[in-house]
Amino acid sequence: MNRHLEKLIKEEYQKRFGKKRFIPGTTPIPASGKDFDWREMVSMTEAVLDGWWTEGRFADTFEKKFARWLGTRYCITTTSGSSANLLAIATLTSAHLGARRLKPGDEVITLAAGFPTTINPLILYGLIPVFVDIDRTTCNVDLKSLKKAITKKTRAIFLPHHIGNPFNIRVVQFLARRYRLWLVEDCCDALGSEYQGKKVGTFGNLATFSFYAGHHMTMGEGGAVVTRDARLASITRSMRDWGREFWFKTGSDKRKNKGLGSRSKGMLPADYDHKFIFSEIGYNLKITDIQAALGVEQLKKINSFTQKRRRNYKLLARELKGLDRYFSFQTAEREARPSWFGFLVILKPDCPFSREAFVRFLHSRGIMTRMFFAGNVLKQPYFHSYKIRYRVAGSLVNTDYILRNSFWVGLYHGLDERRCRYTGRSIKEFVSRSIDKF
Q1: What is the C-alpha separation between 237 and 369, in angstroms, rounded?
Q2: Which of 110, 317, 337, 386 has the fewest CB within 10 Å, making it most exposed?
């Protein structure tokens, strides 16, 4: 890039986004957010100046580097984490998988606790979500409930690593293999988290990631599906690219693979352009190269971002030490090393104050909070507006408890030590004031 233009971008970045003084109680502390500098803006400007804009050279670079960093073989970028979840489930319904494909009426074990877009693809493809409870300490899948939920109709397990805390992959993976079930990891809130020394997203048949603005790294909007399986990767890319039989790099007329190997070529003429042969019911869910250019620069910082999240978690945990009479906190699974998405606070049953009052106080101090995503999706309006087929395996008592008695505060990589300590002191101040009233 022209050095003069790069200098102007640096100067503009400093004017608009340069560090500003933190004023406790006045400067907002978001629950999540992004962290970037002039380098991302230069990279995106380069993508703009290419004049290409749709998926291109930056997307190609990102897919290769992300797969290498994660420790997997294939990365297929897409428009969001929600799109990634949709593509992962769509992939498993493909006729190209033969007898192993998911069909309407098949059961997929998942959680009612969490974000709806883990569940919605199951509904859209006519699959039956089977909801199991969570463990109240880790806020991940309750393993006893999971084991009991498996029946002859079960074909897959689709679970999130909640708030960056990996679920017990050892047990879940064992069950998936024992019963020959597909395993999909929803890593949208867990980029950089590790289990047994390996990054999450490398254990399931497929895994999904989100690069939304408030996540572990950002493309503004964006996501990815990853896998070690060449067949699944080809199907996912086809589903993402309109359902094409063959993969063509965007803008190129040169085929990139041998195709999905459809037995039927339909009724097309023998000389029909391979670029317009479709053997899947697909979508167009590609990212722009401007997004990818942002992602390439963000990926260079992901290890640093992860370290900062872990540091912030330790800082806040230290500040809140001694408050376990009133709260419990999400704990890491054994053999897990989370890259925490947020700091979850769970009010104990005999807590002398309400969540509503607690959250209101923190907001008055400029500290933003978030609920445990959808809480219990079965209680969401859309589950009562549509005739959704599902099954609940056992009780959802812990899911409902977390729904009513928890919230989380930010510790994302854009927050410094001073902001984290202010959050901790504000929580302690609320507790002290509340106790004095009794």
Answers
A1: 37
A2: 386
Q: Model confidence over 378-424: pLDDT tens digits?
A: 999 999 999 999 999 999 999 999 999 999 999 999 999 999 999 99
Kindly state whether residues 49 and 142 are assigned to the same domain: yes
| Domain shared by 193 and 312, yes or no | no
Bridge partners of residue 406, in order along the sequence: 346
Tell me, yes or no, if 413 is annotated catalytic: no
Identify the domain containing residue 189 by its residue range. Answer: 42-298
The answer to whether 397 touches 378, Cβ cutoff 8 Å, is: no
Burial of 20 (0-12, 13-18, 19+ CB in 10 A): exposed
Question: What CATH number is associated with residue 51?
Answer: 3.40.640.10
Give yes or no for residue 261 having a pLDDT over 90: no
* pLDDT on residue 263: 64
- The answer to whether 397 and 333 are in contact (CB under 8 A) is no
Sheet holding 74-78, edge to edge: 74-78, 223-227, 206-210, 182-186, 154-160, 107-111, 128-132, 391-392
Determine the pLDDT at residue 19.
84
Return the sign of the alpha-carbon dihedral for residues 355, 360, 365, 366: positive
Q: Which of 162, 215, 216, 413 is catalytic?
A: 215
Pairing between β-strand 206-210 and β-strand 336-337 as defined by DSSP bridges: unpaired
Indicate if 358 and 230 belong to the same structural domain: no
CA 225, chain centre distance (Å): 11
Element (H or E) spanning 227, and its range? strand 223-227
- At residue 364's C-alpha, the angle toward residues 360 and 367, to 5°, is 90
Q: Give bridge partners of residue 266 from the DSSP assignment.
A: none
The domain boundary, picked from 262, 283, 298, lies at 298
- d(Cα 132, Cα 393) in Å, to the nearest integer? 5
d(CA 161, CA 167): 6
Please report the pLDDT score of residue 437 as a whole number.
66
The amino acid occupying position 388 is: I
Digit-coded pLDDT (tens) for 306-331: 999 999 999 999 999 999 999 999 99
